[in-house]
Amino acid sequence: MEERTRLLVVDDEPTIRELLAASLRFAGFAVTAVATGNEAVAAAARERPDLVLLDVMLPDLDGFSVIGRLRERSGPLPVLFLTARDDPSDKVRGLTAGGDDYVTKPFDLPELIARIRAVLRRTGGGPGGLLTVADLSLDPDSHQVVRGGEPVRLSPTEFRLLRYLMENADHVLSKPQILGRVWDYDFGGDAGIVESYIGYLRRKVDAGEPKLIHTVRGVGYVLRRPLA
């Protein structure tokens, strides 16, 4: 069985903690969720997570203190701050304290998952950088794509689009989300370009079975894992 990336979610708000844990498990991660800083330190030593999603405002210790204790006891450990504190000084403090990224609430779940994967790639965390869905695999480092054992040649834009879809497998992405991520946030083009490139990808990577790229009418597109 393929080893799953282990995440530790630290948030004292039960609703957010449970939503995050369920959503991240659905995205393919193994998740442990705790409510306090002390629980986070103990869980990190016990579970050896690949990345920690750490709220700043906790009932016992603030996240900036927790990150120091995590690193003391668990060694190099990627940390992504997830907090309602959106003041620029807090972000600077979080990154200065050793955080690898800083996401403010409310957050967009597909973007959060993409940021988690980006931090894991930068830090070398997780069981490996290779993205795999069914018989489709994408290697971000070598820029190689393989479907059913056969190499697939993609343009740079097609590669970025496929990578974004695979990083968010089973999550529907809207055209604005795809435009923002694949063509940059300030792209001023027509959303029809997304339809065109989805068509290119389907012809190159989705000609056989099972079909992986699906249209959710009126919403967007999703690369969906086939049912077992």
Strand order of the largest sheet: 2-1-3-4-5
Sheet with the most strands, sense and barrel status: 5 strands, parallel
Approximately how much helix is present in the residues? 40-55%
- Poorly predicted runs of 5 or more residues: none
**What is the H-and-E element order?**
EHEHEHEHEHEEEEHHHEE
State the secondary-structure class.
alpha/beta
- Mean of all residue-level pLDDT scores: 84
The end-to-end distance, rounded to whole angstroms, is 14 Å
Q: Classify the beta-strand content into a percent band.
A: 15-25%
Give the CA-based shape: elongated
Work out the helix count: 8
How many runs of DSSP E, i.e. beta strands? Answer: 11
